[in-house]
Amino acid sequence: MSLSVAVAIARRDLRGGIRGFAVFLACLVLGVAAIAAVGTVRSAIADALSREGAALLGGDAQMSFTYRMASAEERAFMAARAAEVSEIVDFRSMAVAGAGADAVRALTQVKAVDGAYPLLGTVLLEPSMDIQSALAPQDGVPGGVMEGVLADRLGLAVGDRFRLGLAEFRLSARIVRAPDGAMGGFLLGPQTIVLAASLEGSGLLEPGSLYDSRYRLLLSPGADLDALEREAEAAFRDKGMRWQDARRGAPGAERFVDRMGSFLVLVGLAGLAVGGVGIASAVRSYLEGKTRTIAALKAVGAEGRTILLVYLLQVGAVAVLGIVLGVGLGILLPVLAAPLAAGLLPIPVAVVPAVRPALEAAVYGFLTVALFTLWPLARVREVRAAALFRDLGTARRRWPGWRMGAILATLSAAFVLVATFLAAVPQLALGTLGGIAGALVLLAASAWVLRRIARAFSHRANGRPGLRLALAAIAGPREEASSVVLALGLGLSVLAAVGQIDANLRAAIDRDLPDVAPSFFFVDIQGDQIDDFRDRLAGFAGVHKVDSAPMLRGVVTRIDGQDARAVAGDHWVLRGDRGLTYADRPPADTRLVAGSWWPEGYAGPPQMSFAAEEAAELGLTLGDRVTVNVLGREIEATITSLREVDFSTAGIGFVMVLNPAALAGAPHSFISTVYADAPVEAEVLRTAAEAWPNITAIPVREVVGRVAGILDAIARATAIAAGVTLLTGAVVLIGAAAAGQRARTYEAAILKVLGATRWEILVSFALRSALMGAAAGLVAIGFGAAAGFAVMHFVMDGTFRFEPVSAIAIVAGGILATLAAGLAFALPSLRARPARVLRGAE
């Protein structure tokens, strides 16, 4: 038969509607919609970041330095190439409102700007005014603006006064939105903007103080950013200069959006895999209902390939419909929700339909349909014409043949390649797909084991007819157990993994960290303040320990005389500047794992002690030479020892420690950690702030709260994606229960004739559902624990602890879900009269 004949048969067969494809459509629409929605939002934010790159950055390009202002040479370089330059100093400080015992203090990120700020964009203030007017002195008091959350915390109204260090300011407005507000990444405190000139005499920008200086450049139209970047990097990178331009105005936000978007797409793929199980089950059920039609076609001379083409065309047509509906829904929902979320975003984002996310979702949908339908479709070729007279089913052979196996293997490889290519983190994509495949194999194996166990014990359940009937049904030839365990188990596995990861992250923050973490980090302690600071706070009642260390920043530029990045790659130690210190003796609790410390008073060639784990990652060993640029001065030190550094304690830890003579004369400040009982923390903070206004206190509990808030947002987004997966699993459950209703009705009729009561039949149906749900839940617990361990150990570099509460909830949820679906379709079967059912089956 020709293609036209197959098309005609397929069209006529679908005239009765697509009711048999309801579960197919629901699963496909949900999975495709989830991926399309995530892709649409990610695309909109990425477009906004690209479009607003210059405004987000505050200029066409930016040169940044740590611990210092630009040198005369660097300023001349910028002036010669830019039409206008704006200088900004960024640092942390304590904002203080009130005086004495009534004073209120809060950590703030201060942006000290000049008269040219902002070069691009507009700072939106409340009440509305120009930023320079807001910062101008009034009655001799300079103005300042701050975020509303900080003003509320300090109890400030517009016109009230506050202090930064020794300088007093007047709150002239609240910040609604700053054009460069999205580029700062994670901030320890809300933002305050003042004029840099107003900070003179504040004690906050002293030699050695920890700050970043940023120079925004406004370039002439058509400037070659690539050439300018190469020129600046060649001249100043080894002096600690960091380059950024409008092509990636907010790299931190862009990186987060890419990674979070990729992760949510991968969670969506898990939902699509669950939907794939439902799609396969729906196609199998549909074809079973078409057995007599297929047999009739065979009887009139239709070839197996023609019949296969007929149902391929039907499935393809329904798949196109489902994908179109899924893509449309996935685009429509973010577009409708965009106005509600507009106020939550730091930049204007226009959520509009985009081609790439739509195509990405469509490709995933087509590949999923092909992977999960070709196998059951291949079995239609085995239906014999004799099925017109006897119920032979669609097929009995499981393996579809080597040719179809090769096609399925090719499609699987294409799926992996597409997901890896589209993901921002290919390793994450491979790991996720591997996890999904592993979970499917494990769930299929568990379904097979469940059926074997049911078969073995069904003959031993004498005296318990309900249990015996349930076990016999699970062990029977129908594939209900496989469909239920696969679909529900994969959905619960995703939920279990999310639950274990979320519980472990919260435990690390809420339980583990506070037990060992200091109460405060104090920074910008000057050399003439450190002794008094240590003595006064160490003698404070309720303070257990005060640690301190000199603090400098440096950029690793070379390793053994060669470019550091060329030698060790893009390791985090080599990205920008890193903290370093000096010490005559090994710090307390230091454990050397190789080499030896320099003698006290050592004044020879510079020596360095390097963190052992980071050294191994960089390929460094004893005797290697590391060049560090500190405040424009290059210091080449030889690694003479390696030591363990535990950054998880939140205490003072440095990757690099040098001998004191190597850093002699370099201006620097000190940092300190203070461990105190919670009841005295407020008094410690008040004492330190009144005695040393220039010192900045960073409350660890407050930082932990901000991190927890970010984790909450990530957990909510992940839970929504996982919820779609679970919803898809529920649809598959309902589909499996609906598909088996006819068989359960016939089964109930036979059992009634044999003397079984309705209660015994209902118990057997309930036990059958509960056992399948329990099997899916138990596998989900194992998979969730394995996924949680992998993420915590390999990604977060943390400790994994199995969380039993969510695990118990997973098993209970699996049992309840299968019970609800099974019993909802079992009750009508119990009401059917045996005579009518059996007479209709003759």
Automatic annotation (TrEMBL):
Domain ABC3 transporter permease C-terminal per the UniProt entry, residue ranges: 267-381, 720-830
Topological category with respect to the lipid bilayer: Multi-pass membrane protein
Annotated localization: Cell membrane
Keywords: Cell membrane, Membrane, Transmembrane, Transmembrane helix
UniProt key word Transmembrane: yes
Source taxon at top rank: Bacteria
Main location: membrane
Family matches, as Pfam families: FtsX
InterPro entries tied to this protein: ABC3_permease_C (IPR003838), Membrane_comp_ABC_pdt (IPR038766)
Keyword Transmembrane helix recorded: yes
Membrane-spanning parts: 21-41, 263-287, 308-341, 361-380, 401-422, 428-450, 770-795, 807-827
PANTHER family, sorted: INNER MEMBRANE PROTEIN, MEMBRANE COMPONENT OF PREDICTED ABC SUPERFAMILY METABOLITE UPTAKE TRANSPORTER
Listed name of the protein: FtsX-like permease family protein
Annotated source species: Albidovulum sediminis
Lineage: Bacteria, Pseudomonadati, Pseudomonadota, Alphaproteobacteria, Rhodobacterales
